[in-house]
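Translate structure to sequence.
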């Protein structure tokens, strides 16, 4: 096993485990129940997957699907569900508290200069201040930070994981760009929709939004948007519209289905229900509703364009076959002469007598 492949297989999985443990620690601290540490046992699944990958795949990746990312989502999503369901409408530290911290920091710097503390003592004190600020942070900041780092860890982890199957580096870069756009939309949905006060006061809405969010996160272990690009053989083109359409545009169709049924479609339904039934209206909610509507309409327009392109291709193909058939059916002038000579021996004999007359 190459050392580079081993490092690329272990580092992302270690990053997944550490981030999921941070989520479990935050849940245990907020809910004040040490039994929630049992959520950390979910990492045993990721450990088992790592051992099997190193043994049977030699650290390499998989085709179509990434089990490591899927198990990481299984580890971290329950912690985020618990934090969101326990979410308290508390305010973060005020500006006065922050100014007090800044004044304390300046006092410490003056004391440090007067007493000529070493550089190591300064690092230790900065670490203590960081730990204090993190531990005293409000629930909103921690939960939002876990949402943001979850998406960043997913993208970085997929980038670092070994390339599996037939995926190329060009396809991997395209997949990562797709993940970045998808992550931005998911973060907007999770933070902007759940931050509405009327939504927070309704546990059913919170549960439904988290369900849609979880459904969206399940697209990250899949590599289908880039691995479905194939070259259609000639025999597929002769089978008709459906075979040619699904073979030639399989990647585009997956992207369209992803938007309609996993991402923009569910987002649009949730936001329309919030505005029409629950009367939750805000500028940002209206903006993102219009955005989801435009994306869906553009994908439908793209679908119509692909259908028309496939029909045009089949029409040109059929016209080419007809032209080739007519050219094949029309005999050439030389073949007509040969056919006349073979079918009419008397005519050929007469022509030879005219050209060579006998003695008179």
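Result:
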């Amino acid at each position: 096993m190459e050392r580079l492949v081993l490092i690329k297989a272990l580092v992302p999985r270690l990053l997944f485990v550490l981030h999921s443990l941070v989520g479990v620690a935050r849940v245990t601290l907020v809910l004040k129940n040490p039994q929630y540490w049992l959520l950390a046992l979910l990492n045993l699944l990721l450990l088992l997957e790592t051992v099997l990958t190193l043994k049977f795949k030699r650290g390499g990746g998989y085709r179509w699907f990434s089990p490591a990312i899927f198990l990481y989502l299984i580890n971290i999503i329950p912690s985020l569900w618990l934090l969101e369901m326990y979410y308290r409408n508390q305010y973060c530290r005020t500006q006065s508290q922050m100014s007090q911290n800044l004044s304390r920091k300046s006092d410490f710097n003056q004391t440090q200069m007067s007493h000529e503390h070493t550089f190591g003592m300064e690092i230790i004190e900065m670490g203590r201040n960081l730990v204090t600020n993190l531990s005293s942070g409000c629930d909103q900041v921690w939960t939002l930070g876990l949402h943001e780092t979850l998406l960043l860890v997913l993208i970085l982890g997929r980038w670092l994981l070994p390339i599996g199957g037939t995926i190329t580096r060009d396809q991997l870069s395209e997949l990562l760009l797709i993940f970045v756009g998808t992550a931005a939309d998911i973060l907007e949905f999770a933070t902007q929709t759940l931050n509405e006060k009327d939504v927070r006061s309704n546990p059913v809405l919170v549960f439904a939004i988290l369900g849609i969010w979880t459904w969206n996160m399940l697209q990250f272990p899949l590599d289908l948007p880039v691995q479905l690009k194939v070259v259609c053989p000639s025999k597929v083109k002769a089978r008709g519209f459906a075979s040619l359409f699904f073979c030639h545009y399989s990647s585009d169709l997956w992207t369209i289905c992803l938007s309609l049924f996993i991402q923009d479609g569910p987002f649009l339904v949730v936001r329309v229900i919030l505005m029409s039934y629950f009367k939750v209206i805000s500028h940002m909610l209206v903006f993102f509703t219009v955005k989801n509507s435009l994306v869906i309409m553009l994908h439908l327009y793209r679908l119509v364009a692909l259908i028309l392109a496939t029909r045009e291709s089949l029409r040109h193909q059929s016209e080419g076959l007809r032209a080739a058939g007519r050219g094949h059916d029309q005999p050439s002038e030389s073949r007509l002469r040969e056919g006349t000579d073979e079918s009419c021996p008397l005519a050929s004999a007469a022509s030879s007598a005219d050209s060579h007359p006998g003695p008179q």
